[in-house]
């Protein structure tokens, strides 16, 4: 079923009449900005020298736009097309702005390509680490500070704790499925620590083992602080 479309009045011709109150100021601001924009486009496209001076009904200070400068354009107008020398001022021609803009665009494109290459190298590095070994085998960033390294160590210790707990759980399930603890006299506390031993053998940071350890008496876990 087609949804009913909302009918609009479309673009209509605005009646040219004087506005009052806040509408007058809003319209003045919008139209002034549009006028200056069109004047700027005329300067860039046609290399024209333009001066626009606008006075508001309420403000005594005029709004001006000029290229290369309002004073220069007025002096040329008053001199019947002849420019007066102004040694104290230095104007930058539109051509120079266009050249600088083109160079900035080129530099931006170069930086975009460089960022894309860096991202591609990072993806390849991650893929290569996944093929060669575990993620903790990757070299540490030399620019990492002390706080970052401490946070990194705490994160690894948390991973170690979770992995050890998971290994303990899986090994106990396997043991319980094979033999009954009542027949062999094996208690749960006798097996705690196997997962921690497994993780300590495989998980390392830099050149030293992570200091997080677990005690295995009566099935209780105790976490020690990591060391660098």
How would you describe what is shown here?
Residues 9-60 form the MADS-box domain. GO terms for molecular function: DNA-binding transcription factor activity, RNA polymerase II-specific; protein dimerization activity; RNA polymerase II cis-regulatory region sequence-specific DNA binding. Helix content is 52%, strand content 6%. It is built from 6 helices and 4 strands. The chain has helices at residues 22-46, 70-78, 94-132, 146-178, 181-184, 194-202; strands at 50-54, 63-67, 204-205, 208-209. Strands 1-2 form a two-stranded antiparallel ribbon. A two-stranded antiparallel ribbon has the order 3-4. The longest helix is centred in the middle third of the chain and has 39 residues, at 94-132. The radius of gyration is 38 Å and the shape is elongated.
């Amino acid at each position: 079923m087609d949804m009913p479309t909302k009918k609009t009045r479309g673009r209509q011709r605005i009646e040219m009449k004087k506005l009052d109150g806040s509408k007058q100021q809003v319209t003045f601001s919008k139209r002034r900005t549009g006028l200056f924009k069109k004047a700027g486009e005329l300067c860039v496209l046609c290399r024209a020298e333009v001066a626009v001076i606008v006075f508001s009904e309420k403000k005594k200070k005029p709004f001006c736009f000029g290229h290369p400068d309002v004073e220069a354009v007025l002096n040329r107008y008053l001199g019947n097309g002849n420019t007066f020398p102004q040694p104290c001022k230095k104007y930058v021609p539109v051509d120079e702005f266009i050249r600088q803009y083109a160079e900035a665009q080129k530099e931006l494109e170069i930086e975009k390509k460089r960022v894309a290459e860096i991202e591609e190298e990072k993806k390849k590095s991650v893929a290569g680490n996944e093929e060669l070994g575990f993620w903790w085998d990757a070299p540490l960033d030399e620019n990492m500070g002390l706080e970052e390294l401490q946070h990194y160590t705490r994160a690894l210790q948390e991973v170690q704790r979770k992995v050890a707990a998971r290994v303990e759980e899986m090994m106990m399930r396997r043991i319980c499925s094979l033999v009954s603890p009542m027949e062999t006299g094996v208690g749960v506390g006798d097996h705690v620590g196997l997962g921690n031993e497994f993780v300590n053998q495989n998980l390392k940071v830099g050149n030293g083992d992570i200091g997080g350890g677990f005690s295995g008496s009566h099935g209780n876990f105790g976490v020690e602080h990591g060391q660098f």
